[in-house]
Amino acid sequence: MRQAGTLKMRKQQGFVLFIVLMVMMVVALFVVAATQSYNTEQRISANDTDRKFAQSLAQAALRAGEREVYALGRENIRFSSECAGGMCTAVGSVSPPDNLRISISGSPTVAAWERMCGNVLCVERNGKRYDVGGLNQNRDSRYIIEFIKFDAETGIEVYRVTARAKGKTANTVAWAQGYVRRRQNFVGYAEG
Question: What are the Type 4 fimbrial biogenesis protein PilX N-terminal domain coordinates in residue numbering (predicted)?
Fold first, then answer.
């Protein structure tokens, strides 16, 4: 009788080992799945943080461009198709009256923020640089200013400012755009 009991016990020990191995494999699969999920969530979080960082830099550059519009002098403001000095001719621009002393050259058919200067976006090549103070590894934000129109009845000039900023990774780019209305003695703001 003892021999039969011993054989039975040996079979049970082998079966328990098999069950333990199967449970360990299932636990290992759960650990691998949880690790992959964690890594994916971490990448998503890092990308979202970088996107928000780039967006805040673009907004800061937009505000700098708006301040520059407010400070524009009344003489010899030149807008060109190549966005020289960050001053761009808008699509469908109409020459303003001579008393504004604004000159417009070229008649582009592509929006200024999509316009290419060679093989680079004009905003990247000729846009005005907004210094972020070393926050972004020499990837300063840039902005361009476009003269949109002049309303002779109200004396209001309308400008569009477009800003582009990069995040900490090369693939993260954010844009911001706003409209500025200004009159000789009054400056108003409207964001679009």
Answer: 13-63
Helix spans in the chain (H): 2-71, 122-126
Q: How many domains does the chain have?
A: 1
In a domain, 3, yes or no: no
> pLDDT by residue for the chain (192 residues), tens digit each?
455 555 555 555 567 788 888 999 999 999 999 999 888 899 899 889 999 999 999 999 999 999 999 888 766 788 888 888 889 888 887 777 666 677 777 888 888 888 888 898 888 888 898 887 766 665 778 999 998 888 878 888 889 999 999 888 878 999 999 999 987 544 444 444
Q: Quick check: is 174 in a domain?
A: yes
Asked, for residue 13, whether it belongs to a domain, the answer is no
Is 7 within a domain?
Answer: no
User: How much is the pTM?
Assistant: 0.73
Range of the domain at 136: 24-183
CB-based burial, 153-165: b 16+ in 10 Å, e otherwise: eeebbbbbbbbbb
Q: C-alpha dihedral over 101, 102, 103, 106, to 10 degrees?
A: -160
